[in-house]
Amino acid sequence: MCGSPNPARRVESATRSCRTVCPAGVDVSDLIMKKRAEHPSKLAGAIFAWQGRPWLFEPFLKLMGRTQGLWDRPLPRRVMEQALAPLLRLLAPTAKLPADMVLPRLAPRLLRERYAELTEERGCQGPVAYFHGCAANYFQDGVGEAVIAVLRKNGIEPVLPRQKCSGTPIETYGHMDRVKACARFNVESLSRYQTIVTGCASCTLSLKDSPKWFQGEDRKQAEAVSAKVKHISEFLAEGGLKVSPTRPCPKTVTYHSSCHLRAAGVSKPPRDLIKRLPGVTYVEMRDADRCAGGAGTFIVKDYDTSQKIFERKRAAIKDSGAQVVATSCPACMIQLKNGLRGEVEVRHIAELLREAYE
Question: Rounded mean pLDDT of 330-351?
Fold first, then answer.
């Protein structure tokens, strides 16, 4: 695997899949990240610096969300593709944002604004924190709402703590000092909670891996936080599911296993939860644990290769006969929705649970 020219294998290395399968126990992805730190992307660094100033970044994002119905159409998208091409080539020679790529719906109002009463800033307190991460906050994809609804249904009023990016995309582009700063902020913010629930595979892995950035007493504090991090599927499967869902879902469902969630040690809980949904017929697809090719921003860095990788996943999903493909990762949802184009319904596992409660 480590020396394979196969693009799918290269992507799996970058998405931490190697950690779970390497017979020698070598974390190849960690070696890749260290090499990338020697040559950090300047464009990505500028974007992360912008995102780190929410008073500048978030108004722009919300404006794009409010006007997406105008610019996310064939002609404007073709203009965007051409206009962004020179800039994206600074990210990678193959980078592009194709006019026909299905983009996630941007949120006109961020999750923290829609659920302001749950934020730490508004004085909300409780033992369970929901670390929503960037995707659930910035995208209107239903994941954040579903996680909150499912927790509430099971008697938990989650707190939305102060938080910064978990660091996964920042580390990918080699900006380790910024990753460490985010990790330090998050560890300090999350230390006071008994349980930290996530809905994002990448955030789960980053938070569980946070001790690697620290030494001494700081590392002990990070280890204590890391031990309290649970993906929503992990949390519910381990006893958090107090109220059984009752609404039948007479559909055949398969599961795409996120690379980052497997690397975080979570593989069985999502499948177990799907099987507990009333009316669901669960089928395990071929190559369920194989990367779908999105790999975070790889879908932008090398769109053509990402789609070639996805063809194997598409065939596995279609051959399974499933009407719904569930996953635990918002980034994987982007690749699945773009690749399937409505042929098969794509759902986060929290969305399936929420629907089974309604």
Answer: 95
298-318 tens-digit pLDDT: 999 999 999 999 999 999 999
Extract the tokens encoding 321. 């006969």
User: Who contacts 354 (Cβ-Cβ below 8 Å, separation ≥6)?
Assistant: 145, 146, 149, 150, 153
In whole angstroms, give the CA distance from residue 278 to residue 247: 7
Length of the chain: 358
Domain range for 32 is: 7-38
Q: Is residue 102 part of a domain?
A: no
The two tokens of residue 157 are: 């009023």
Question: Cα separation of 343 and 50, whole Å?
Answer: 36
Asked, for residue 46, whether it belongs to a domain, the answer is: no
Which CATH number is 256's domain given? 3.40.50.1860
Beta bridge partners of 270: none
Whether the model clears a pTM of 0.85, i.e. scores above it, the answer is: yes
Bridge partners, 222 (sequence order) = none
Are residues 277 and 249 in contact, defined by beta-carbon separation less than 8 angstroms? yes
Between 172 and 252, the higher pLDDT residue: 252
In this structure, is residue 197 part of a structural domain? no
Q: Which two tokens stand for residue 20?
A: 């779970």
Mapped onto helix, strand or coil, the DSSP state of residue 213 is helix
- How many independent structural domains does the chain possess? 2
Q: What is the pLDDT of residues 40-98, one digit of tens each?
A: 889 999 999 999 999 999 999 999 999 999 999 999 999 999 999 999 999 999 999 99
DSSP symbols for 49-62: HHHT-HHHHHHHHH
